[in-house]
Amino acid sequence: MGGGGGRGRGGSRTQRRHFRQNRENVWKRPKSDPSSENTNENNGENRGWEPFATQNPAFDEYYKEQGIVSPEEWDAFIEVLRKPLPAAFRINSSSQFCSDIRRQLEDDFMISLQSEVSEGGEPQPIRPLPWYPENLAWHSNFSRMQLRKNQTLERFHEFLKLENEIGNITRQEAVSMVPPLFLDVRPDHFVLDMCAAPGSKTFQLLEIIHRSMKPGSLPDGLVVANDLDVQRCNLLIHQTKRMCTANLIVTNHEAQHFPGCRAKSTASEIGAEMEPPISQLVFDRVLCDVPCSGDGTLRKAPDIWRKWHAGLGNGVHPLQIQIAMRGLSLLKVGGRMVYSTCSMNPVENEAVVAEILRRGGGSVELIDVSSELPQLVRRPGLKKWKIRDKGRWLASHKNVSKYRKSVIVPSMFPSGRSFTEQMDANGSMEVGEKHENGGNVEDALQSTDDPATVANEQEEEVSDFPLERCMRIVPHDQNGGAFFIAVFHKHSALPGEFKFLQRVEVL
Ligand SMILES: C[S@@+](CC[C@H](N)C(=O)[O-])C[C@H]1O[C@@H](n2cnc3c(N)ncnc32)[C@H](O)[C@@H]1O
């Protein structure tokens, strides 16, 4: 029956429906409130549904200060972040039906769907992603709701469902398809995917390994897909079994402590008469798609708006470094490693990359990949950033109070210099203590009236590393999600690595 004043939250029913359709992923059902379950007010419709709050002042303040987009772009950036993410999918390049599927999309669906208005209001409801090779990845402006409800889209929806089920296409966020492309994998490569679940990038890696193989023959390459979470490993297995591959091993370890695997060389490699030596298994390619705060997925997971705070990025920074360093130690000399996150935060990105280069001590290079995938819109990595802790901006580790030193570590800052190192060089007092005027540090933290002013008064640090070679993809660049990617080349053994390898062999 009609829309009585008490049923909705303002606005006509049509307006509400329109809003719901356009903000499909920004609705949540809060924990049920038994006291209101049977009231006439709700009348059974829309009961308990509320929009997610798609804003967070702490988020705005943080990213404005970091300057990840220019002040002029801020409104466009934030507006796109609040919109639902358009769907994207990829054609399995190793499928024998790959060309047929691409032809069907180009010659049939691209034309027949033209008359359907997509919710994004783009002229082409579906289109190939211009930066993905060979028209194999597609962007669709149809929301899940539209696909499910609109009769004329039924054929397209059925096509997507069926081809996805049998492994000919995979639904995957567009930006998440980028890291494997920069890994430069060949069919004979041994690839380690350190944090692999739920497996969309593993699937992509397997596609490359299997590409151009004749049906029935097996490639020489191998993907080892690891994840800490056993349930997510199950998801990964479910996802990758659509590939029907024998070239995948799934492991369940902490990536930062991924075990050294020992392999026997084949007799043909060493001469049939000799006993094959045991050597450490090293990988041609390593993908480090590490756990992160995930704020690049805000469009897909709007509940992150509510949960976001600067401490999330600070908290995962040490683990991200550990995982990346373990990845590098398992990488062959001459091999390539990609480090990626779905976070926009420099403490999870540029700061980690700088620390990898620092610890790598010249054996690792951050590669300039600006000429690869030229149509992918990306921004260079930052050279300077600040750390936010307990409501305070910190420009250098020397500004960290001694009570926070176990949490706010030197590698988080652009110079990577530790407070103690500063003391050694200058032979002076602890600068952090001077800042607190000799008073109680907790008091000093709480009495900070204007954190931005405090940061401005501090000496700004700038990284010496070529961090502009990193890539940050932001949502309004190509109507997608956000991602960060850095590509490394290992020139020689890491400092201390040789000793480690020898020890493994003796064991
Ligand atoms: C960003 S997700 C990976 C997404 C995946 N690469 C994909 O494309 O589908 C990060 C993953 O890291 C896993 N993880 C968290 N801590 C880990 C650790 N210490 N070692 C290995 N995996 C970890 C999480 O379970 C999660 O699946």
Structure description:
The structure is a single chain. The chain has 507 residues and is of the alpha+beta class. The protein has 3 domains: 87-172, no CATH class; 177-383 and 466-506, Rossmann fold, CATH 3.40.50.150; 387-457, no CATH class. It is 33% helix and 15% strand. The strands form 5 sheets. Strands 7, 8, 9, 12, 13, 14, 15, 18 and 19 form a 9-stranded mixed beta sheet that branches. Strands 4-5-3-6 form a 4-stranded antiparallel beta sheet. It has a two-stranded antiparallel sheet with strand order 1-2. Helix 12 (310-329) packs parallel to helix 13. The termini are far apart. Bound molecules: S-adenosylmethionine. Belongs to the class I-like SAM-binding methyltransferase superfamily. RsmB/NOP family.
Q: What is the overall silhouette? A: globular
β-sheet strand percentage: 15-25%
Named once each, the bound ligands are: S-adenosylmethionine
Distinct helical segment count: 19
Give average pLDDT, whole number.
83
Low-confidence stretches: 1-27, 32-45, 429-453, 499-507
Estimate nothing, just give the exact number of structural domains: 3
Under CATH at level 1, the class of the largest domain stands as: Alpha Beta
The end-to-end distance, rounded to whole angstroms, is 77 Å
Secondary structure category: alpha+beta
Kindly state the number of beta strands.
19
Write down the Rg.
Answer: 26 Å
Biased composition (Low complexity): 37-46
GO biological process, one term: tRNA methylation
Biased composition (Basic and acidic residues): 21-34
Subcellular location: Nucleus
